[in-house]
Amino acid sequence: MAHGPQPPASRGYRAYQLLICGMLLAAMFNWKLAAEIWNRKTAVKAKQVESRDKSNSEDGEHSESEEEEDEDDKKGGGKVGFRDRKIIEYENRIRQYSTPDKIFRYFATLRVVQELPDGTSTSEVYMTPQDFLRSITPGVKQPEGQ
């Protein structure tokens, strides 16, 4: 209430102000994004080291598994989109609540067409071992175009 200049703030008060501002900034910081960027940089460094080691030991030969890993990296890291999540949820409900014949009809992918001598054809649907495993494993999506 004095009409003169205010005295300078003490060191303790300034430290308290800095602590509060730091806590406020830390609360607003996107830690998940920072961790993702940090992990991405370290993963790239690790891949570069691995590729150098492999190229030194194999003299530049590539195996099929390395090419598949490169293709997977280009596709976007395996994130599941909204549409795929909804399809997986639907398939999980089929697994849980449907009768065995409906599960078979949904998951069986092998169709055998047989031509008869009289010009007609009959077809039968079979389930491959991969189809069977897919039909009993929750969270696994039916392949596209099947």
Largest sheet: 2 strands, antiparallel
Domain count: the total is 2
Helix content: 55-70%
**Share of β-strand residues:** 5-15%
Strand order of the largest sheet: 1-2
Tertiary shape:
elongated
The helix/strand order is HHHHHEEH
Kindly report the average pLDDT value.
Answer: 79
Based on the model shown, name its key terms.
146 residues, mainly alpha, two-stranded antiparallel ribbon, Calcium uptake protein 1, mitochondrial
Could you walk me through the main structural features you see in this protein, from its secondary elements to its overall organization?
The chain is mainly alpha-helical. The chain folds into 2 domains: 11-53; 82-146, no CATH class. The chain has helices at 11-28, 31-58, 64-75, 82-97, 100-107, 129-136; strands spanning 110-115, 121-126. The chain has a two-stranded antiparallel sheet. Strand 1 and strand 2 form a beta hairpin. The N and C termini lie far apart (81 Å). The mean pLDDT is 79. Residues 44-81 are annotated as: Disordered.
